[in-house]
Amino acid sequence: MPNKKIILSGMRPTGKLHLGHWAGALENWVALQNGGGYSNYHLIADYHALTTNIDTSDIHAFSLEMVLDWLSAGIDPEVSPVFRQSQIKEHTELHLVFSMLITTARLERNPTLKEQVRDLELGPMSYGYLGYPVLQAADILLYKGEVVPVGEDQLSHVEITREIARDFNRQYGQVFPEPAAKLTKFARLPGLDGKKMSKSLNNAILLSDPPDEVNKKMKKAVTDPQKIRKGDPGRPDICLVFTYHKKFNPSEEDEIRKGCESGSLGCVDCKMRAAEKINIFLEPFRERRKKYESEPEKLDKILRDGEERARAVASQTMSDVHKAMKLG
Ligand code: SF4
User: Fold this and answer.
1) pLDDT in tens, 181-197
2) Is ligand 1 within 6 A of the CB of residue 243?
3) Does a structural domain hold residue 196?
4) I need a surface site. Which of 49, 109, 135, 241 has the fewest CB within 10 A?
């Protein structure tokens, strides 16, 4: 598409998505798609999922669930192709070429890697795990991505991608752009316990949760521990329910703040008001989901179409790469 900047963004298929995924990535994806200035590709990073879990028994089901969440959030597959990394062999081919252009010492310095090894309590690191930013560089550059929408924790990976693109171009001639990171506006939404929102921590509101489930979950949300009952003054700035109001109920933010600080607003009411707004926000998601769920064969077709479109671009890039490297 002429004059449109190319964006490649993806997620690992780890099951149903939650509001944290919306705030940290999907919201931005949909805005970029609907803004019209970009050509977006959306990758189901199923090979990446293997870097932390080699059990593949759920990957297919998880991939379909994730695509359903993307579509329900407003990704239009006609405009933005969605596809599985494992179905486009050029990802692994370019990964191999790029892996010769970076040292293991550089990868070991990657701050995100150190954090993840600590947080996920991974055992000894696999060769594939150390190199996953290189696979990510291949994912982006295979489509000659110029912009990468990311959260702050992914900035170091975009830097590795830029370094690899520069090194390739210097060694073999100009093939790749140097993609720029595009930070999301509201990158983090905490879970109901105040920790990072995660399905495995059981603190997440899923994009597919029905209204009564959202209400039930919100009742359990932690609040300011100093505000025990209605009448006690609270501190909205340390309360995650207030964070949800800021995100999903901005027009009432000032009123909620005043009510909390004066004590006139009780936490139960405050939570239910947040739940109501989240339910209103999720309603269009539910409508779109219902439509896709009623035609399961359509999901397969969406993936097949997306993969065909992605393959055409990927194969052209590999042909450019081979030509530049004087291979074949
Ligand atoms: S009133 Fe609302 S913002 Fe204030 S502490 Fe309770 S839940 Fe949090």
Assistant:
1) 887 664 579 999 999 99
2) no
3) no
4) 109
